[in-house]
Every structure is written in C-alpha cells, then in structure tokens.
C-alpha cells in the first residue's frame, strides 16, 4: 500500500469538534438542522454540500467513504447498507432496458441471482465469459454493451482475472469497467490503477474484519459516483451511521490485518500443499496457482483465502467440517476467526451437479478464510481434521 494513501486514509477527519475528541464522533442523527431559511434554500438548491438527511449523506458515513476512496485511489464514493445494495446500485444506475453487459460466471452467488433472475425482467442482458481466457472476451462485445463487471479473485474457486487485459478491453469499447474488490481489499489490489471506473465492495467481509456489521460501497470516478449518489438518494440503500462509524475504525487497521491474514494464509497453504487427502490446493501467491504470474503482477499480497479439493468428494467435505475442533462453520468470510466452508453441501447445494461444475464448485471443495489466530493452531486443526 502506498505511503500516501495509507496515511491519508488513517488521518481523514482528524479535525475536531469543539469537544476536542481525538477519535471521530458518531453522528447518529437522521436529519440536520439549518440556521435559517436562506441556508436551507441554498442547500436544497445544491449550492453547497451541507448535510440534509442521512438517506442522502451523513458525516460518519462520509468519513467511511472518504477513507475507502483514499485507499482505492478513487475520486469519490457512496456507501450502502450491504455489498449487494452497492452492486445493484452500480447496475441500475448505468444499465437500462435494451442494454447488455459482460461478466464471468464465477461470481458471488447473490450477484449471479441479480444477473440471471432480476436484471432480465428489466430487459438488461448479460453474457458470461471465461475468466481464464481474456482473448475470448472481445467476441462477447455487442453494439449495446455498456459495462464489464468482474470479480477477482473469484468466489469460491480463487481464479485470478487479468485486470490489465480487462481494463484495455473496456477502454477500447468504451465500457464502464466495474470491479468487485471484496476478496482482495484495496490493500491487496487497486483495480482503478488498471483502468476500473467503479469499484464495489462488501465491507461486511475483510473491511469490517470482525464479523460485526453489514456494509457496502461504490467508489470511482467523480462523475459516475454523482449518478450513483442520485440513484441511492432516491432509492434509499443508505449505510447506517453506526455501521459506518464501526467500519471507519476498521479501515484504520485494514493494512496490518491483511498483512497478517495473508502471511498466515500463505504459510498454511504451503504446509498443506501435497497433503495425501487433497487433490489440489489453490492460493494466488503459490507458484502452483494457474494464474500465479497474473496474481503477482496485479496483487500486493495473496489475500486471506485459499481453497482445496478433498479426494473423498461430497461425503469427505461434510466429514472434514465435522472433524474440525476450532475453525468456525459459518457462511461469512473475512473474520479474525478462521472459517471453513463446503460450498457443495451448503451455499451451492440447491444447484444441480452440472450447474455447480460450470462454476468450478467440485464436490469436495473446501474454502478456508484464514483468521488472525496463531498460524500453527489453524494448521494443526486442519491437519487433524484431514486425518
Ligand atoms: C459477501 C459478498 C458480497 C455481498 O456483500 P453483502 O455485504 O453480504 O451484501 C458481494 N461480493 C462478494 C465477493 C462477497 O463476498
């Protein structure tokens, strides 16, 4: 993380109120009062940026957005109640009936639902391209293509998509390049440096990092965020000031936390690679990862997630979870506590075998979100469960 960005993000809002507090106060208020009718008129006429109502903006929410934008190298941002509301806002603000966009099939489950079940109701079509083959993407571009939407590393398979190739394609065809940066966080990669116009986040995961609150954000080019703001100000997915206040504190420690999450993950992934109960193991910063070269080029660390395939398939996956003594079994990821998940029997159990294999969810796939416990305790629990 660059020297300038990290310090800026920590020092934002270190101005004080008359109470001289050092940590920023929580503005738990739904609206803001005016001194007189003229101030109120000018604010409503957009002649200044004064606060009006917390569905539009709020100082605690603004602090969170400014910090995240600083880390991503973005001009501006808007924070939302969840990652999904940020993603939906980024689609509905810029896509309309008759528009087309391009994405990859290995994306977050709820995003896949939005793309396949809801957007078609509004006449918005999407083509899924092969994440691992950027040369094939251009064939999907149509005259009505408006956006390129990507997620890297992908969920849960941790494939890496080439951001530089994607940025070039988006520029060539004048597409809005929109990246879900939840898995890597701005500490691991900054898509704007590869040409992204918008970056969406679920702040619920690594950004909070302690499994407490839901939150999301869109950051990016000022003129695009203005449109996101106008859409959200009317539709109302605003982030709660309390959650924003929690998430702002979290951003101050994101750099040190991600450093430890990823060094723990690298150590454990290295130790498990080649284990006799495992067919393969994937971690972006292991040379055995199929897109290792791309990961090294665009990421500053390998992140806190790795995944592997158990030899025994579905039954072995369930048994592995039952054998764990310390790791948590929960649907979340990005926590101080290490989490194990088995997509085939849980999050993706409703899909058919073919649907699962089309998004690379094999029967024995285990995803580990590495926490901040001592790395040897995490490894020990996984090793005894593999036995
Ligand atoms: C969790 C997640 C989301 C959705 O975020 P919520 O805060 O749960 O709404 C979107 N994208 C990715 C990659 C995620 O992991």
Set down the secondary structure blueprint.
Blueprint: H1 3-11, H2 37-44, H3 59-72, E1 76-80, H4 83-94, E2 100-104, H5 109-118, E3 125-129, E4 145-151, H6 163-172, E5 176-180, H7 185-188, E6 198-202, E7 216-220, H8 222-235, H9 241-272, E8 278-282, H10 292-298, E9 305-310, H11 313-323, E10 328-329, E11 339-341, H12 353-358, E12 365-369, H13 375-386
Parallel strand pairs: 2-3, 2-4, 4-5, 5-6, 10-11
Antiparallel strand pairs: 1-7, 6-7, 8-9, 9-12, 11-12
The protein binds pyridoxal-5'-phosphate.
Walk me through what this model shows.
- There is one protein chain.
- It contains 13 helices and twelve strands.
- It has 387 residues and is an alpha/beta fold.
- It has two domains: 3-251, Aspartate Aminotransferase, domain 2; 254-386, Aspartate Aminotransferase, domain 1, CATH 3.90.1150.10.
- A seven-stranded mixed beta sheet has the order 1-7-6-5-4-2-3, with helices on both faces.
- The longest helix is centred in the middle third of the chain and has 32 residues, at 241-272.
- It is globular and about 75 Å long.
- Pyridoxal-5'-phosphate binds at residues 82-84, 108, 110, 151, 155, 180, 182-183, 202, 204-205, 214, 216.
- Pyridoxal-5'-phosphate is lined by residues 82-84, 108, 110, 151, 155, 180, 182-183, 202, 204-205, 214, 216.
């Amino acid at each position: 993380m660059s020297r300038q960005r990290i310090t800026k993000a920590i020092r934002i809002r270190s101005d004080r109120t008359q109470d001289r507090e050092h940590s920023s106060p929580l503005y738990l208020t739904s609206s803001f009062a005016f001194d007189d009718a003229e101030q109120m008129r000018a604010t409503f006429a957009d002649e200044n940026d004064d606060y009006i109502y917390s569905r539009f903006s709020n100082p605690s929410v603004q602090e969170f957005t400014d910090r995240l934008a600083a880390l991503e190298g973005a001009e501006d941002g808007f924070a939302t109640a969840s990652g999904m509301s940020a993603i939906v806002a980024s689609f509905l603000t810029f896509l309309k009936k008759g528009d087309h966009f391009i994405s990859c099939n290995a994306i977050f489950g709820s995003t896949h639902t939005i793309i396949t079940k809801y957007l078609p109701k509004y006449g918005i079509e999407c083509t899924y391209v092969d994440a691992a083959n950027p040369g094939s993407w251009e064939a999907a571009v149509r005259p009505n293509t408006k956006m390129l939407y990507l997620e890297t590393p992908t969920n849960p398979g941790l494939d890496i998509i080439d951001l530089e190739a994607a940025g070039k394609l988006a520029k060539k065809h004048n597409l809005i390049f929109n990246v879900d940066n939840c898995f890597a966080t701005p500490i691991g990669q900054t898509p704007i440096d590869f040409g992204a116009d918008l970056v969406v986040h679920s702040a619920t995961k690594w950004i909070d990092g302690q499994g407490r609150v839901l939150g999301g954000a869109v950051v990016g080019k000022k003129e695009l965020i203005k449109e996101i703001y106008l859409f959200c100000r009317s539709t109302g997915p605003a982030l709660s000031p309390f959650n924003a206040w929690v998430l702002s504190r979290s951003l101050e420690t994101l750099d040190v936390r991600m450093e430890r999450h990823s060094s723990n993950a690298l150590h454990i992934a290295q130790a498990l690679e080649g284990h006799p109960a495992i067919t393969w193991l994937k971690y972006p910063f292991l040379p055995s990862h199929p897109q290792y070269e791309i990961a090294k080029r665009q990421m500053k660390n390998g992140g806190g997630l790795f995944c592997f395939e158990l030899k025994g398939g579905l039954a072995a996956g369930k048994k592995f979870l039952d054998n764990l003594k310390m790791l948590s079994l929960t649907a979340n990821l990005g926590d101080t506590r290490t989490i194990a998940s088995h997509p085939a029997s849980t999050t993706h159990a409703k899909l058919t075998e073919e649907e699962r294999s089309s998004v690379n969810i094999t029967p024995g796939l285990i995803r580990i979100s590495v926490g901040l416990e001592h790395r040897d305790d995490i490894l020990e629990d996984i090793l005894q469960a593999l036995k």
